Amino acid sequence: MLKRIGFFLLTNLAILIVLSIVLNIVSAVFGINFGNIAGANQNMGSLLVFAAVVGFTGSLISLFMSKTIAKHTMGVQMITQPTNKLQAWLLETVHSHAQKAGIGMPEVGIYEGEANAFATGASRNNAMVAVSTGLLSSMNKEEVEAVLAHEIAHVANGDMVTLTLIQGVTNTFVVFLSRIIGNFVDRAVLRNESDAPGIGYYVTSVVLDIVLGILAAIVVAYFSRHREFRADAGAAKIMPCQCLQFFFHPMNHDSIKSPQAGNRCKNGFVPFQIFFAADP
């Protein structure tokens, strides 16, 4: 636990350092004064550049560090040299799927947890696929092959990069709008006449960062759900068999039924959290 917390803190520190460096470089190269993104002389152009740098820097760092973050936070044990038949089969299956999808061989790993799997990485040829012990123990080989085909399809479709760009765009709008509204509240509502931004600007900006960030998460989740359908279609091309069609209807299979599957609609209402679901 302490190791994971320490890695989380180091990751965030790295993002802050890189963000500071990038802002200073952009300011020096393009002559942009980030000191006027708020206050009496708020400059929309400077604010937009600032918002884009802040919005995309975190997303891009997360993308490029995604494999390292996943390995450390989820305790993924990488398979470099298989020590048993299961590990050898996993490597062989992923290699076969990757060849059919036309991508480089991803790293393959196993982690402790309930039935699940994921793919991550900065590019089609620099990815990682990991499966949980729960998934391996609750599914037969055909079903695991289908799951792996789905994850490989995510890599082949470039979903990690696509969602990173979408997250960067939404982050940019969150930062930009929150500071415009914050400056308005500070100037027009609270009547701050100083050239520098007042407490109203900072409080409003922070609150709106949270509120707009939640709304932005709905947008990202919407696109993520559509990428899941595309991954299903890609998996069907990699592994066109009857078990694939069966697997991707988990309501029909008790061993892989999601605990949320029966709670999609209660008393005729759709739960609000469904809008944040990244997987349909």
Structural class: alpha+beta
- How many DSSP E strands? 4
Question: How much is the radius of gyration in Å?
Answer: 23 Å
Average pLDDT over all residues:
83
Which strands sit side by side, in order, in the main sheet? 1-2-4-3
H-E order: HHHEHEEEHHHHH
**Poorly predicted segments:** 250-266
Strand percentage lies at: 5-15%
Give the N-to-C terminal Cα separation: 31 Å
In helices, the fraction of residues equals 55-70%
Shape descriptor: elongated
- Most strands sheet: 4 strands, mixed
Please report the number of helical segments: 9
Structure, described:
This protein has 280 residues and is an alpha+beta fold. The chain is 62% helix and 8% strand. It has helices at 2-30, 44-64, 66-74, 85-101, 133-138, 141-156, 159-189, 199-238, 242-247, and strands at 77-78, 107-111, 117-123, 126-132. Helix 2 (44-64) packs antiparallel against helix 7 (159-189). The longest helix is centred in the C-terminal third of the chain and has 40 residues, at 199-238.
